[in-house]
Specification:
Structural class: mainly alpha
Shape: globular
Distance between the termini: 40 Å
Order of helices and strands: HHHHHHHHHH
Helix content: over 70%
Number of helices: 10
Length: 205
């Protein structure tokens, strides 16, 4: 398989992977609705940083260790606890007196970055995805340059997708529609995060 053919396969596989709704998607969409496009960008950068760790782990063969039952169980429990924490934050959100987001609900750029980072890094499906990518799709004799190009492409696709999600949900008309529902957006997102967390927790048994 030529490198261009390999690149096309990786692009297609990664686009399918990142576009599937999951914790990262709901983190970016919920935050962009509340804090705007800039917030979505910072969270997207955090998600890309988490993606970098997964790519490096896959390239170094660490992903093979991460999918061992004992290690995967630990990752799943950590992921479940983080998602349940996000769920609790959403479910216990209080209605503001006005349509303006109250100051204590506004996350700093650093907090946005790390929220995206941890949400991506602790996703237990990603070690499996990158393990299959490095063992099934990528040839064992791939050069460092080719691997670097593929990594850059995957990071660009990840950032581009989630930045687009943030851009869409931060559009004024979208924000106005969702902000009318106020606290129920947070509670719905909280319920989804809780469902994700419980699903991951039960799968770790």
């Amino acid at each position: 398989m030529s490198f261009l053919s390999l690149l096309a396969v990786v692009v297609l596989a990664h686009l399918v992977a990142v576009s599937m709704p999951g914790p990262d998607f709901f983190c970016v969409s919920q935050t962009s609705i509340k804090q705007g496009r800039k917030a979505g960008i910072y969270m997207s950068l955090g998600i890309v940083a988490g993606c970098v760790i997964h790519i490096v782990a896959g390239a170094l063969g660490v992903a093979a260790l991460l999918v061992k039952p004992e290690v995967m169980a630990f990752i799943k429990i950590a992921c479940a606890l983080y998602l349940l924490y996000l769920g609790w934050k959403g479910l216990t959100a209080r209605q503001a007196a006005t349509d303006v987001v109250v100051e204590q609900d506004i996350l700093s750029n650093k907090q946005l970055f790390f929220k995206g980072f941890w949400c991506n890094l602790l996703n237990p499906k990603l070690p499996l995805y990158f393990l299959s990518l490095f063992t099934v799709i990528l040839p064992p004799d791939i050069s460092t340059l080719e691997l670097s190009i593929l990594a850059a492409v995957m990071m660009s696709l990840t950032f581009g997708w989630f930045a687009m999600v943030g851009y869409f949900f931060a559009a004024p008309k979208i924000q106005q529609q969702f902000k009318k529902m106020g606290v129920w957006i947070d509670r719905t997102a909280g319920a989804l995060f809780t469902a994700f967390g419980l699903g991951v927790l039960f799968s770790a048994r």
